[in-house]
Specification:
Blueprint: E1 6-9, E2 31-42, E3 45-53, E4 64-65, E5 68-70, E6 82-83, H1 87-94, H2 98-116, E7 121-122, H3 135-142, H4 148-155, E8 158-160, E9 164-171, E10 180-188, E11 202-208, H5 210-218, H6 226-235, H7 241-245, E12 253-254, E13 257-261, E14 264-268
Parallel strand pairs: 2-10, 6-8, 9-12
Antiparallel strand pairs: 1-14, 2-3, 2-5, 3-4, 3-11, 7-8, 9-10, 13-14
Helix pairs in contact: 1-2, 2-3, 5-6
InterPro entries: NUDIX_hydrolase-like_dom_sf (IPR015797), NUDIX_hydrolase_dom (IPR000086), NUDT19 (IPR039121)
GO molecular function, one term: hydrolase activity, acting on acid anhydrides, in phosphorus-containing anhydrides
Cofactor: Mg(2+); Mn(2+)
Length: 274
């Protein structure tokens, strides 16, 4: 799918976009992160799960985002029970080594469970439908008391990499003091499961049509980060989750340039793709 080379936020300059204090020094080194675009079929069409981050968060505070976060060193654990495309396949999709690819997929599954309660895991060919037995494990994962590999082993579960689709790769602009090298995944809400907002990092969460989420941003009710806005725009083209997950995608590493122009923010993609 072709992307616009430039797009504009027709909203006041976004306070969620900060500027480095040492503007003349080297940019901050990005931290590897994984984000999951959860999809489901709603009564009016394709819906996406979004969270409104707590305003006090050091990164993207007050923004509306997909579930996700930084990769944990323990996400590289090769002992994790795994089903679906191997780390080498994901490494090819995201142009990284196998160890990081494993960490990104594990981070995507872990963060999705921590932040939304959706668990992309199962036994045999099945997927977990009732996650209530793992309520305590979810809290332990969020508190970094256990690793994803340890939780899955104790629960007798297997990570289901086949439920994920590589969607995009964005790096936070160099102007920002806190940066992430984020790989975006997409996944359909497993049958029987529900997404919630039971996380300390969000004060609201729910399902929306992509066009409604964009309308909220345009009219000042919510704030979106550039990649979130663009991906929601892409999702407007699909009517079902299966249709979106069947789409052909080219994963391009994108480092946008942010240009402030009065009361608008212009996001330029031309010179930042590599």
């Amino acid at each position: 799918m072709d992307r616009p080379r430039e797009f504009v936020f027709d909203i006041p300059v976004n306070p969620g976009i900060a500027t480095r204090g040492n503007a003349d020094g080297p940019p901050a080194r990005p931290r590897d992160a994984a984000t999951v675009i959860l999809l489901r079929d709603g009564a009016a069409g394709l819906e996406v799960f979004l969270q409104h981050r707590v305003k006090g968060m050091p990164f993207a505070g007050g923004m509306t985002v997909f579930p996700g976060g930084g990769v944990d060193p323990r996400d590289t654990d090769a002992s994790v029970s795994w089903a679906g495309p191997p780390p080498s396949w994901w490494a090819g999709q995201f142009t990284c080594d196998d160890s990081l690819a494993r960490a990104l997929v594990c981070g995507a599954v872990r963060e999705t469970f921590e932040e939304s309660g959706v668990l992309l895991a199962g036994t045999g060919d099945g997927v977990v439908e009732d996650v209530s037995p793992y309520r305590d494990a979810r809290k332990a994962l969020e508190g970094k008391e256990v690793s994803l590999a340890g939780f899955l082993a104790d629960a007798g579960l297997t990570l289901r990499a086949d439920l994920l689709l590589p969607w995009a790769h964005w790096v936070t602009p160099e102007q920002e003091p806190r940066r992430y090298d984020t790989r975006f995944f997409a996944a359909k809400l497993p049958e029987g499961q529900r997404a919630d907002g039971a996380t300390s990092e969000a004060d609201a969460a729910g399902w929306q049509l992509p066009r409604d989420a964009i309308a909220d941003a345009r009219e000042g009710r919510r704030m979106l980060m550039p990649p979130t806005w663009l991906m929601l725009s892409e999702l407007e083209a699909f009517t079902t989750a299966d249709e979106a997950l069947a789409s052909s995608r080219e994963i391009v590493r994108t480092i946008p340039t942010l240009v402030r122009d009065g009361d608008h923010i212009r996001v330029v993609l031309d010179s930042s793709e590599a």
